[in-house]
Protein: ATP-binding cassette subfamily B protein
Amino acid sequence: MNYRQFFKRFLWPHFPVYFLGILLLIAVDVLQLWVPKLLGAAIDDISLGKTHLASYVGNILLLGLAILVCKFGYRLCILGQMRKSEYLMRDAIVKKSIRLPVQFYEKHGPGKIMALLINDVTSIRIAFGLGMLLLVDAIFLNGLALWMMASQITLALAVRVLLPMPLILLAAVLLGRVVRKRFRHVQDLFSNLTEYTQELFLGLPIIKSLVEEASVARYFATLNEENMQGNLSLARVQAVFIPMMRILPMICYAVSLFICGRLVINDEISVGDFVAINGYIGMLIMATMGVGGLIAVMNRALGSYDRLREYFEWPEEQATDDCADHRDSVPAQAKVRAEHLTFTYPEADTPALCDVNLTIPEGAFVGLVGAPGSGKTTFFKLLLRLYNPPAGTLFINDKDVRSYCLEDLRALSGFVPQEQILFSKTVADNITFPAPAQEQDMDYVQQLMDDTAISLSLQDRLQGPSSKLQEAGTDLSGGQRQRIGIARALYKRAPLLLLDDVFSALDFQTAAMIEESILKLRRKYTILFISQRIDALRDADIIFVFKDGHIVEQGTHEELWNRHGEYYVLYHQQEA
Structure:
């Protein structure tokens, strides 16, 4: 995303009103220039003994009123429209985050997005809000004030008075580059700190159970120290930059007093001209001091723009070319086939799956077993295209998964991961997510709560499906969260049900109850069940045994048991 694309996407929708604000800002600068002129004329008339000052007072009051109205207008147009652009940027960041592949979050985590939403968007809003005010003042106020000064004294004298100004601009440019570099580093440190803080609070119960509070606190202190040192590094530059921008312009006042003061003594200009010239110098100083702030603001914004550009250029999940024109209806059944499926994770050297071949018919109850890291969950991720398998290696209903639109493909599957994500909403809202309340089938929700033993498990702490959960479901046990996850997948009524070790957090009695409910669905749905509890797969139509990314055995429980192979070893290890 280049500057032009960024402007067109986030600023152009509100640019007409924004441009009106710029015109009002220019009008303010023009009107302000008449105040020193009127004040100088009034002083000259007083020195000559004239008494008709009412007209000067009235004119200055009218100018003040006009300036007030225009200032209110430009703040409303410029700063108000930038709030709307800020909304567009945050909305685009969140929408982009939904379309990003899992690889992004495995590499960056949520901290980067939080920093973009909070810090970087704010920096850009300030740059096009406050920064635009400073820029217009620097161009128009400086230029017009210099022209008005030249009308009071010669242009050569005006240039001599303003001779220190180039030093200010040079210092602003040189130090501004350092500000930009260090600000970007501070943003990266803030991302790391934010991400770790989120993980810390989410994992607090586990940290307490392992008595790791001290080590976690030490690591947090290390990240916090790095963040503090980064901010102090930025502050040291700003500690030189900002005072310098305030001190250097004052040299112009000293030069003005020396040059223009002598002109007054020699009667070459009047006292009123002297007052007007100093008024213009004051305006020039304020505008020039604003240049320092402008450069600091713009350098921060450029650093934020670089981060946003990198974010928006991150490739989204790949969809097929015909997604916009074609959407498959969800079939009643699903069958799965893999042919010589080999997959290696990005930046990994060893394949996670190697030459996998399998066929799963419609309505089958299929078990997948194997040691941790053997490739079972990877197979699920490829079915859902969380990662893209090689073309022509994985099929659902005889159609390459790479040929499906992502929404169509994932509509085929009800996926229950190992760890459940719950929301601070009601039990029914979590089961029917993302369906709105008015579309919820409450009878089916209650049936699923009974089938998955949610009602029985939660009867002491919740009052049915309308009970609200705490944030992330922290008021529930791991097994209770898992049951809600299973009910959520079943509510989807997808023909392919993917269960990733869902019994790991359940007691045997509850697991048997839920397994009985799942087995009733075995002909209605195609069920793929990863389980570390081999006894839960006794009734499976076929079991695939994974080892080091290969399928080393397949068959029913009895067939695999009688072979005395890998399955037999795993079963006995579990029994032991």
